[in-house]
Amino acid sequence: MRIIIGILLLFLSLEAETSYEKGKALYIAKACYSCHGHKLEGMNTFPYLANRAKGYMKYKLKRFRSKQADTQAQEMMITYSVDLSDEDIDDLTTYMQDFVEDEAAERYDTSFETHGDGGS
Ligand code: HEC
Fold first, then answer.
1. Rounded to two decimals, what is the model's pTM?
2. How many domains in the chain?
3. What residue numbers bound the domain in which 90 lies?
């Protein structure tokens, strides 16, 4: 009986995974961070995505998914969106819109120093 309850609880907790959590997992699994950053802060010409309007980002991702890009830079996004489902896009954009920075703080390793004695 206890095992059955345990299994039921496990299913319930899986069910309870929020759109934000699913979006976060996808953001990491699809390596979106390699261009847009772990804190969704962007990098060089790659735009930041943190707390931007969900509707806008959804529109952009769906356009990229249908292989539409307005600039050469945007073509880069096609590869990263062709295999996203509508639900994936919904979860990703929830994560980006509602993103909380504190929670991603540990994703950068700041323990090393950028200068040293040259090593010899
Ligand atoms: C290889 C680098 C790269 C990766 C990886 C990448 N992107 Fe992008 N992303 C870009 C570039 C470049 C643009 C277009 C910037 C521009 O309009 O000039 C862009 C644009 C976007 C936009 C539209 C932002 C805007 O201001 O119009 C969204 C939303 C987005 N990316 C989400 C994602 C998501 C989600 C993933 C992972 C599935 C991802 N990106 C992976 C490079 C990347």
1. 0.85
2. 1
3. 17-102
